[in-house]
Amino acid sequence: MSRTIPSAPEVISKKAAAQKIVAVAGEIHEDIVKKHRKPEMVFPIRSLQNVRYDAKRGHFEILGKTATRTLSYNTVKTFAQSMRLLATTKNDLLDRDDIAGKREVYYNSKSWGECRFDEQPESDTLLDDIEAMLGINREQLGYIPEERGGDVTGPLVVVDQDPGTGKDIRIDCAKLGTGAWSIPSRVEHLRFEAGKAKFILAVETASLFQRLVHHRYYEKAHCILISMSGVPTRACRRFIRRLADDQRLPVLAFTDGDPYGYCNIYRTLKVGSGQAAHINRFFCVPQAHYLGVTPQDIADYQLEDATHPLEEADIKRAKDALKNDPFIQHHQEWQDALNHMLKLGVRVEQQAFAKHGLNFVLDTYLPDKLKKNKFLP
Amino acid sequence: MAKKTNGGPATAESMAQQQRDISVSEFFLKNRHLLGFDSPRRALLTAVKEAVDNSLDACEEAGILPELGVDVEQLADNRFRVTVTDNGPGIVRNQIPKIFAKLLYGSKFHRLRMSRGQQGIGISAAGMYGQLTTGAATRILSRIKKSKTAHAIAVQIDTRQNKPAILSDEEVDWRPAFQSVDTAGQPAGEPAVSNHGTSVSIEMEAAYQRGKQSVDEFVKQCAIVNPHLTLHYRLTLAAKPETGNRGGENLKPETGNLSRKEESSVKSAPVSVATAQVSGSSSSASGLRSQVPGFSSQVSSVTYHRAVKAMPKIPDEILPHPHGVELGLLMQMLKDSESRTLRSALAHDFSRMSDRTALEICVRAGLNPKANPTRIAQQESEALYKAIQDTKLMRPPTDCLSPIGEAQILAGLQKELKADFCTAVTREPAVYRGNPFQIEIGLACARPQENAGVGLEEPVRVLRFANRVPLLYQAGACAMTKGVVGVNWKNYGLSQPKDALPIGPVVLLVHMASVWVPFTSESKDAIAGYAEILDELTLALQECGRRLSVFLSRRHHQQEAERKRSYIELYIPHLALGLKDILRFGDKEEDRVVHDLKKMLAKTHLDV
Question: Which site among B567, B569, B582 would you substitute to test the A interface, given the most A Cβ atoms closer than 10 Å to its Cβ?
Fold first, then answer.
């Protein structure tokens, strides 16, 4: 397949980013004192309602819907917080070439008096707003994610740079003993050597990842193992994307067999999320396919007595996805899988294969699935 | 039932020995509860009330703007002197003894006209109560206009004959004088002296206690409901009992509390052996009282100034309406009639009774219209009574009433309450059982912190008045209270527990004006619940309620706007500061941004 995928997010210099902030503030200022009208902030709506599944490019593409936040009694606090956050971003991060974590932003606001953020989700949301409004992803504004990007093991050499000297550092991910290499928050500068690898296997849970590492599964299967620990972070998605693009490797995802694993973990890995609609095109892995655990696997591997009933939240998630998720709606196979699961009324975990013996999953299940070479899109 | 004497059956003769005149004093002592003298505390209030009622009635009848002095003085532990002075027309010398020392003597009983007093018992009953409990005489000072001197008379009741006994009678140079006090209770300006007026002074066994049924409350409510009245009230409480051996045991704790709420001045009276200098906190004062020999007293004074100078309309006298007359009274009226025939007696002694209607009633009762009314009274009055009840009659005239008036109610409420909202409704006159009456309601939304007795969580205060007289007892039995409870106040923005008064810092003034107020008992505490009266009460209360709800919702909007304003103004400076930091402009520009933003948001969010 030939895809036209931009290789990296548009790189914006810190100066240009600062200029953009000044421009936004300038417009607001002009509205107030010259045009005497209520200032507005316009941002793209970040939700599944405002994305389209671009099958050709293989990711969620943002639509034109925007939200306008006009200054009013209800928005005055958010407006004030936005201005102060923009001022901090420009003056303290961009102008000074500094970085800050999301939680640091939250604590930084504690010096703003009554304008402070009461809870971190408030500042997180506002940060996302600003990112979308400016059209610059937050990493480029100097904000670093708190969460870890994921772990990597396998026949891969990552060429990183020493932050001090700029010299290359070669990390052989096959020679990390019982540990693994952690994906950093910024991955754009990494280079890869993975001549022996045949595919990338992205695993949901850390415990299964540990089992595969312990038994050196990556040697047997010639794969690069990545632990996502739930929904993959932006850095994790970007890393897998760059690695897969660079080394022309297929990507397989192995998650719990439940609506969360399908619609949140896998879907986000492959096509991005509604929340990050404005930057999905960089932070997604369109070449990913879904290995398991599928609803069909329950019967195929006699897991009926190793399942759990679907909880209300699972059912709601599945129905929501069938109704609203453009990716699911595009793929009949996924609709069938979700409907199958709803009909069974159960979910199944990755660890359920332990029913047939602790190493059944790597001795039988994975080789079997790879041999069949039939994956969900 | 025959009375048994000495074991044997009673004979007509032995019974005759027991049968004798009952003196008014005996009757009074046995029935003092009927007249409002059942407890020492209540006796004090009743004495003040009767004297004030008389003074106000006299002033208004003479067209004089009333100015009253009410002086309550504790002479000993359980002995008080009540002195009420007015600037009324005065009383001619010959009438003084009868008015003050003869029960059932007065001008008001024999006419059907709206007035405070009704029976002519009040003030002489107070005098007799004083006489019976202390032996002291009722002292009257009175000066009539253009007279060179005043009469000073001391009278007692000859309790066996219900006749006044004059103890002393002199001519003195006296003029009623009224000393105003300021809000701190200190004298303000020279006393106002009048050329005419009356002062009555009664010593009696009594007790003083603060609270909702106190003299304090009574005079305050008088001031509210009589906004044309200026009233000077002075309460002097003895700080030390008269005799040493009684110690402080009977000292009411309320006397110590007085200085907390009332504006009072604590001073020591100039007595030769005075060693106790009582000043400062009341708690130390009470400590001193029981230990230090000597005499000191607490004086608290307050002046209620008049708010309006318009006199109330003098009510007209009307003839009784046939439907309002009981059988007994009907008999009496027929007996007393000056008419020679039944028909003319009916037509002339009653209101709304035309010659034709009188004839119709006679026919309906099967009586000869030309019959002698006196004879009818004795024999056929029951048939007549029934015929009257069955005949449709025009309602009695209602222009005979003198309501307080909406403007005056507002003036009265506003001058005595710190209120955010006041409204008043005077209903059109209505009729119950042939008696015209009129209901008035005043409603004040008081500020909880600035008014005693009202609170956000307290039941509303209902001030009840009948013919401008405050009713302080038996609130629960009164139709006025029932009327208030019966209205659904939740509709008007007040919370209301089931079958109870609504909750809130609201004062309700409820007034009934009538030529004959239907009290449930002689002590005149509670209004009887005639349906017509309850209906009028309900309609007036609902009207006030609607206005209250408009006010409350408007105030709610204002508070909401105020809350929004302060919220907006909290964040605008931050918005400006953010812009300033990004765009790097100066303080002056920052101020401009703040100013413009406030203006902008005020325009769209704070328009009330």
Answer: B582
